[in-house]
Structure formats: structure tokens, C-alpha cells
Amino acid sequence: MDTTRKIPEVSFFDFLKRALEIVKNPLPFHHDNFEKKGDTFILNLGFQKKILFSRNADFLKYALQKNQRNFTKSEVQTKDVAKYLGKGLLTSEGDLWKRQRKLIQPTFHKKFLTELLGIMKHTINTELSKIPVEKKINVEPYFGRLAFQVVAKSLFSGEVEEQTISRLQEIVEASQKMLVRELRQPYLGLWFKYGGLLDKHFAMVREGRELIKGIIYRRKASGDRKGDLLDLLLEAKYEDGANMEEEQMIDEIMILFTAGHETTSNALSFTCQLLAKHPEYQDKIVEEHLSVGEETDMMQTMMSQRITKQVLEEAMRLYPPAYFIDRMNLRQDTFDGMKIAPKTPLLFSVIEIHRHKDLWEKPMEFWPERFDGPPNQYSNQYFPFGAGPRMCIGNNFAMFEMQMVIAEVIRRFRILPKTDPIEILPLITLKPRKAFLEFEGRPEN
Ligand code: HEM
After folding, report:
1. Is there an atom of ligand 1 within 6 Å of 113 CB?
2. What CATH number corresponds to the domain at position 361?
3. How many domains does the chain have?
4. pTM of the entire structure?
5. What is the 90 CA–ligand 1 centroid distance (Å)?
6. d(C-alpha 221, C-alpha 139), whole Å
7. Cα–Cα dist 88/277, whole Å
8. Pocket test for ligand 1, best of 90, 309, 392 (most atoms within 8 A of CB)
9. What is d(CA 321, CA 338) in angstroms, rounded to the nearest whole number?
10. Angstrom distance (rounded) from CA 206 to CA 181
């Protein structure tokens, strides 16, 4: 008996009808299709191009974990992103990825991260002091800078001039913007190429690589040990005893900057917007701060910040910075009776899984206490950091950083909303659109 079932298809005509709206924000179109066609559908983009969309959490786990060998990263990551950032963890595949992941994974172990907490805290305090009070501001640039500085200082401690770090941030952000333009406006490809825009961005990337090369060179020449990530990367050895080559290390550092700053900045902006709308959770965080206090063991303090952590988890459920995870199957595959032709581009909608009415009680409500259970209670339906072997290597780093930031923001300020409702801007990551807020100094500070 043939148990295969046909995957419902959304026609090219349906796509064309909403093309203008899709360029601005494709998420309502995807949502309507999921509601009409079910948790998995194929979108026909014309010219023989089709993409499979899914908000089936089991399917995501199948592709990212159970049968991950048959699902590679998409060309967007391995070619388009790699064109700017090189072949680091996020953009590599196969043996190169395996070798690099094995080498770098221990660097992000909780034990080593504990040593970075002091650097992180100092950087966070410095950056939060720059937030203007009693003024309507867009928080994004503040958190963007903060998140970049935290990665930069964790990598290079304090020995790199501010100017160099700011330039690196400009370069990383400009190349991300250019990539979005290339992906969203492929019909302008020739103009980008022959109008000199691509060359200009590649020149900037080369400049960024030279800056990083100089930092590595000076560290090696000084023979100093700073106890930062750069030390750990320089000391790490492959199984054959060799160290990472310089060009590969530059690729990895470019990737850490890119993967680690915008995602974190977005999550922080959304969290503050949610806290502004739900001031009762600001009060709960203050109460928690007073009861936990500042233990000398920073790791212990963070373990005790249960509410702060739950608020962040809930914010990333509703607004996952990595709102899509993309893959391509190498060979034909079958999931739940659905036959997937070889080399089908697949997009797993993390935001739809995180808001699925069959998976979550009151899915659209901000209700952080839903996370007040065992740590893995939602491991089959909650994927802010992905799943399987390619899961985010910086997840603990990001959680520690964000907990420190939110606890400190709320200790210093009362946050007032200045835009309602929260609006999204889905680019490579899910960003907030116009994250306007006001920060009012707390009288007790
Ligand atoms: C809230 C913050 C963050 C979010 C939501 C996030 C999310 C993710 C997700 C979903 C993936 C998997 C992508 C896929 O499977 O295609 C990933 C991979 C990755 N992330 Fe993060 N990330 C965050 C912060 C960070 C930080 C702080 C760093 C480093 C400092 C980092 C470094 C990486 C790297 C290197 C990879 C590639 C791992 C591999 O393929 O082996 N991320 N991240």
C-alpha cells in the first residue's frame, strides 16, 4: 500500500498576488499559507524554483538532528554569507566544519566562559552608562554596540583601540546589509557587480581581515596571556597537535562577530520592549535582584536569576532572532509520508513553531512562567538556538550576556514603552522595527 502523501502547494500565482507585500514582510504570507495548507507546504516561485516551508517541530528535529547527515546548510549560508565572511563554523560543511567545531567547542564550555564573566560585566556597565535617560530613544543602536563590544572584548580583552573595534563593527554590519540587498533584490545583481558596490564591500572586508590579522600578530609577538577567547583560540590544538592556521582563525573571528552580535542585540531589544509593555515583570526582576543580591560568584548569581532567564526565554519564543533555519536534503528523503525530492530547499519557520497553537498554551501571550519547569521541558518545540550538531556554539555565552544586561538595565532604569504594538523587521535575523523606548533612572540608584 502506498502511504506517501502529497505535500500541499502554494501556486506561483498566489505568490505573485502578494509579491509587493512579501518584499516588505513575508511572514503574514507564510502564516496564511500554514493556516490554509497545514504545517508543511511547498511554495512555487516559478522558473522551476520551489521551496518547502515547515512549522512541524518533529520535522525540524528530524532534519537538524535525527537524519542531519542528509540535510546540509543552504547555499545562502555556505556561498552567499561565506563570500563576505569566509569559511568559518557558520558557513562551512563536512570535514572542515567537523574539525573546526571539535577544536572550538571547548572554548565555549561553561568552565571557560566563567573566566569571561568579569570582562563581560565591565563592558556591559560601560555601554549601559551611555544610554540617555528620560528621552525617547531607539534602543537598537545601543544594544547593537553593546553586543559587538561584548564579543570584541571577550575575544581581545581591552587591548584593542576603540577606533579599531568601531571600524570592525561598521565593516561587519555593512557586509550584512549588502548581503540582504543581494538576496532581496537579485534582479539588481549586474548593477551591484558592475556599479562597483560589491567591490567596495569586498575591499571593506579585506580591511577588516587586515585589522584582525594585526591584532593576532601583536598578541603572538607580545607572548602575553590575557585570558580571553583569542588566547584560547591560539592555544587550541587539532588532534594531530597542529594549531589553527591564521586565515582560518580570521574567518572564525569574522563569523563570531557576525553570528554573535546582531542576534543578541535583537533579543535584548525585543526583551526590553516586552518589559516596557509588562512593567509587572520589571518589578519581579527588581525583587529578584534584591533577594539574590550580588554574590561574589557571578555564575552562582546567574543561576539564581530565574525570572530574568524566563523573561529572556519567553522573549525569544515570541521573537526568535533566528526566525528561520534553512537546509537542503542531499538525497531523496521521506518524513511522515511526505516524499522530499533531492536538493529541495527547506525553510523551517522557528517563529511559527514557537507560536503554534497545538504546542503552546496561550501562544500569543507573554507569559514567562511557562518556562518555570525542568530545563528540557520544551526541547521538542523550542529552538531559539537551533538543534542537533549545528546548534549555536554561543548559546551559553549569549544567555549569560543577556541575563547580565537585563538584570543590570532593570536595576538602573524603569523602561517605558514609546511604540505600540511591537513591530518586526524580518531580514537575515528578526529585528524590531523602530524599537522606541524611554529609560527613567530608578530613584534608588
Ligand atoms: C540570542 C543570541 C543568539 C541566537 C538567537 C543564536 C542563534 C543561532 C542559531 C539558530 C544557530 C544555528 C543555525 C543553523 O543551524 O543553521 C546558530 C549558530 C551559530 N552561532 Fe549563534 N546565536 C546567538 C548568539 C551567538 C553568539 C553570542 C555567538 C558567538 C559569540 C554565536 C555563534 C554561533 C556560531 C559560530 C554558529 C555556527 C555553529 C555551527 O554551525 O557549528 N551565536 N546561532
Report:
1. no
2. 1.10.630.10
3. 1
4. 0.95
5. 8
6. 39
7. 39
8. 392
9. 29
10. 20
